[in-house]
Amino acid sequence: MGKSTLVSIRIITGDIKRLVQFFEDVTATTAKWATDDFAELVTNSFILAIGSTRTLAFFGEGVAQAATNKSVIIEFLVDNVDRDYERIQDLNCEIVQKPTTMPWGNRSLLFRDPDGNLINLFTPVSDEAKTKFASR
Predict the structure, then answer these.
(1) How far apart are CA 97 and CA 136, in angstroms?
(2) How many Cα atoms occupy the beta-carbon half-sphere of 116 within 13 Å?
(3) What does the alpha-carbon distance between residue 111 and residue 115 come to, in Å, rounded to a whole number?
């Protein structure tokens, strides 16, 4: 098998309009709607796909369940996490951790989307972290 490339992450939701609007606000990106049940937010590095629970019929019964994620954090590299924190507070979402400098050199803001998924906005602040993310 050859090298793999992450292309997209898909979230399944019971309220697609609400979740797409939330991520449009978080990413300052306009979603591209393929159908009423599927939209994509295209970023510089990957696509955040959002599908309604109705799309699960194409994959089989019980393959996914909306609003039950307890193990994945969706992370976005941003220019200034402290500035974004002011904007994110206006979205009326649960802030899990205010901007905090982590031991690995990123300043991180952790919050939940309307379905409870963890979202991390981060800015590299240490020299090592800045070097790591310089090309992204």
Answers:
(1) 24
(2) 8
(3) 11
Per-residue tens of pLDDT for the chain, all 136 residues: 689 988 999 999 999 999 999 999 999 999 999 999 999 999 988 999 999 999 988 888 789 999 999 999 999 999 999 999 999 999 999 999 999 999 999 999 999 999 999 999 999 999 999 999 987 7
Q: Which domains does the chain have, with CATH numbers?
A: 1-58 (3.10.180.10), 70-136 (3.10.180.10)
Amino acid at 93: C
Q: For 22, which DSSP code?
A: H
pTM, two decimals, is 0.92
72 Cβ partners below 8 Å, 6+ apart? 117, 118
